[in-house]
Give the backbone structure.
Amino acid sequence: MEANQKQSPVMTPKRDYERSQVEDNTLPLVPIYTPETEIEKHFAKRVKMLDNLITVVIGPEKKTYTIHKGLLCMYSQYFKAALSNDCIEASTLIFQLDEETPKTFDHFVNWLYTQQVVPHGGSIEAMPWMSLVQLYTFADRRSCIALKNDVMDSLVTKTVKDKMLIDNDSINYIWKNTPLSSKLRPFAVDFWAYCGQLDDFAEYPRNRKELPADYVFDL
């Protein structure tokens, strides 16, 4: 072996760099990507989302909620459009929804900050069908797609765990408060057709009279 055998050069990892968009090429190169800058950008975005607070007044009871404007605009296209316009609500940071109920809005605020449909310490089995149905219709009215998807998942989970079908009051509420295109309608029909017994249904003419005619027809 040669005493002065050349050693292989040590390979050091290199970052990809691009030149700053400045004519002066003597300026130092800047990294295209570093984990630190991405983390900082993400953190800054989250901080900005939690910067401004608005007051939301709900229902005839005039119950007030103090909520971060950025969260509302992030998850609801309805609030994003309303609070981005030069309207009274946007300038005064007060928003009023007379047609909504505090009970449903409580569930919405819980989901907004926790991303959980079921409140902390609760269970999907203990959550009433009507609460889930009303939360879904709220999300539909306020263009909150992520919440609609989470509520639909919860409805399926409740059906499987409870081994019970959605109750008559909730079915009537769906048919009175949703458009024909609502995903809640086929959910109510399909799960009854899948899990229920038509023979049992035929034995209860009183129940059929209490249900929407369109629902019974689809079954």
Notes: DSSP finds twelve helices and five strands in the chain. The longest helix spans residues 145-162. The two ends are 88 Å apart (CA to CA). Residues 8-35 have pLDDT under 50 and may be disordered.
